Amino acid sequence: MVSLTITVIGLGQMGGNMALTLKAAGFAVTGSDVFEQARTRLASEGLTVAVPDALPASDVYLLSLPTSAHVREVIEQSPGLLTLAPKGSVIVDTSTSDPAVTRELAEKVTAEGLRWLDAPVSGGPKGAASGKLGMLLGGDDSTIERVMPMLEAMSAKRTHVGGPGSGHVVKLANNYLCAAHLLTTAEAVSMAVKAGVDPAACLAGINSGSGRSAVSEVNFPEWVLSERFDSGFTSGLMRKDLRLARDAAEQLNIPLPLLQAVVGAWHANPENPTDSDDFNHITTPILTRTHLAEDNE
């Protein structure tokens, strides 16, 4: 039996599935969420749950929250993890957060005798449920070694990219590229379709060459051309991540005109897609302009 005890805070699609995956792997897991509905749903699936102001003492507190503000609240608000978490326990933030806030919180956490690891994830709810997430790790080697059994149970791939905050920096860089690839791939496919090329054939050609990406290899066949649009990641979350990437660049005082253009394109029409729409829907206006839907009928 695995010895780590884990409290998962945030039981949405990602956090809830991670909690169940860790429970199935043999860890002692407690889940917590501010919403009673989320706690009830996970309890019905066999997870031990606790209200936020009655968290148990644990070796690891795994956070899966929407924004840095929520992470700060969980850590600093009284009673927060700064006062509730036992000395030596590890706070692992799997959210996509503001790196500047992450580094500030990491300093406060370590000053209180706790450990910090930012570990933003990719792979969506399906990856969380199957234990096949990708993880970008920002923290020291000893902390990673301490929680490695948990990380191995959650993920198929783990990449240590530096100290506290580094995982969130690289996650923002990754999401910026994903957001850009959705736009550029949609335009490339649209051009091919207008020239009489079948979209699936166009993607096959792209994926055999240097223009391929995870978007062309996975997103387009899985969610765009199939019109399923059920990846589990919303346009609102991608817009939030792009704003964080833009803000990080501005804080570093480096001009990134392409990033600014991508941020602008994603925010140009908040109704198409809406924040609640699947993020792959950003391709729909581009593809619709070329009558892709009609050409596929």
Describe this structure in words.
- This is NAD(P)-dependent oxidoreductase.
- With 297 residues, the protein is an alpha/beta fold.
- The protein has 2 domains: 159 residues, 3-Layer(aba) Sandwich (Rossmann fold), CATH 3.40.50.720; 128 residues, N-(1-d-carboxylethyl)-l-norvaline Dehydrogenase, domain 2 (Orthogonal Bundle), CATH 1.10.1040.10.
- 52% of the residues lie in helices and 14% in strands.
- The protein is built from 14 helices and 9 strands.
- It has a 6-stranded parallel sheet, with helices on both faces. The protein has a 3-stranded mixed sheet with strand order 7-8-9.
- Helix 1 links the parallel strand 1 and strand 2.
- Helix 9 packs antiparallel against helix 10.
- The longest helix has 29 residues.
